[in-house]
């Protein structure tokens, strides 16, 4: 089977480092630590510029404007080589912004932005939705996750949910090269199309200075959803929002894409369940994989997990540019769509974590009073082992 691998460029623009005008953080009610300011993205202007799938608009995916909004509203957008000034519509959310430039000439190759009397210019990238047409698309953003984790994540979802395409945003990994990710994903049978986007910009901090929405400054991740949605996935059969440390539970005689396809509005919400980082068995020196963790807390904390989702991309309501795909939910979607969405579940593995955001990965003590092995999880791994044709004796030898 031929595998199509692409490494798309993106058009990134930032304020001059010496600029006195920078993005300012929202007001805090608590004191922020220095690491917040070290990680806060004050300078990025645009993450990507590309053609809308309709071929008449050009989309700019940006961090939220915050204090820069008046300057964006006064900005001029010029298409080159025609020098035509383009009108703009702004779609602003807490952590991202989409700008739609209207009636762009078909021969437009670059966009010039006059912003605060400075000129910024970048290439208009191609829309790549055709390359992923009718695909069952899995996507994530990752940095320095071991290749073994990436492979098991991709293999599991290919076997259990018929994933055949992957969009992978690499946030500046330093322990391997982009080529290593390509080889890892290409080694998974059944994956036909792969795009790896090198995305080494500031991810953004957790904000301890506010009470609500502490991840509001994760501009890069949240904006990557818009790039995925509008540049790559418009014509996909469906998309699955699932990170490296997450596995969507199998569905008898079906998969998560079919659940979304057969839902009233094309949306399936996924409820998470934590799997603790206590190892099921001794593994020696090898890197632990998802299948090495089976223990779940007996109390309510197992269910303290944010949602994920799967989406049927062939729904007309998705054409509205005010709709935004978020990490845990969709924004600006009518309440009835979310209320009508069927629910399924995913397992969230604390042991599959590099502790980049919070400390989760430690081999805790095994206690029958606080932990147990859900039959559902054991059966899931047994089915996965059978399909993957791998030997997991601590799974296959157990009663299910």
Description:
The protein is of the alpha+beta class. It folds into two domains: 8-123, Immunoglobulin-like (Sandwich), CATH 2.60.40; 139-191 and 237-396, no CATH class. Helix content is 20%, strand content 26%. It has helices at residues 34-39, 69-74, 147-161, 178-186, 219-232, 256-261, 335-340, 375-388, 393-396, and strands at 4-6, 13-14, 44-46, 48-51, 58-62, 76-80, 84-86, 88-92, 97-101, 110-115, 118-123, 136-142, 165-170, 193-198, 238-241, 246-248, 267-275, 296-297, 308-312, 324-325, 330-331, 343-349, 371-372. A nine-stranded mixed sheet has the order 1-14-13-12-15-19-17-22-16, with helices on both faces. The model is unreliable at 356-360 (pLDDT under 50).
List keywords for this structure.
400 residues; alpha+beta; Immunoglobulin-like; nine-stranded mixed beta sheet; four-stranded antiparallel beta sheet
Give a quick precis of the structure.
This protein is α+β, with helices and mostly antiparallel strands. The chain has helices at 34-39, 69-74, 147-161, 178-186, 219-232, 256-261, 335-340, 375-388, 393-396, and strands at 4-6, 13-14, 44-46, 48-51, 58-62, 76-80, 84-86, 88-92, 97-101, 110-115, 118-123, 136-142, 165-170, 193-198, 238-241, 246-248, 267-275, 296-297, 308-312, 324-325, 330-331, 343-349, 371-372. The chain is built from 9 helices and 23 strands.
Topology record:
Layout: E1 4-6, E2 13-14, H1 34-39, E3 44-46, E4 48-51, E5 58-62, H2 69-74, E6 76-80, E7 84-86, E8 88-92, E9 97-101, E10 110-115, E11 118-123, E12 136-142, H3 147-161, E13 165-170, H4 178-186, E14 193-198, H5 219-232, E15 238-241, E16 246-248, H6 256-261, E17 267-275, E18 296-297, E19 308-312, E20 324-325, E21 330-331, H7 335-340, E22 343-349, E23 371-372, H8 375-388, H9 393-396
Parallel strand pairs: 1-14, 12-13, 12-15, 13-14, 17-22
Antiparallel strand pairs: 2-3, 4-5, 5-9, 6-7, 6-10, 8-9, 10-11, 15-19, 16-22, 17-19, 18-23, 20-21
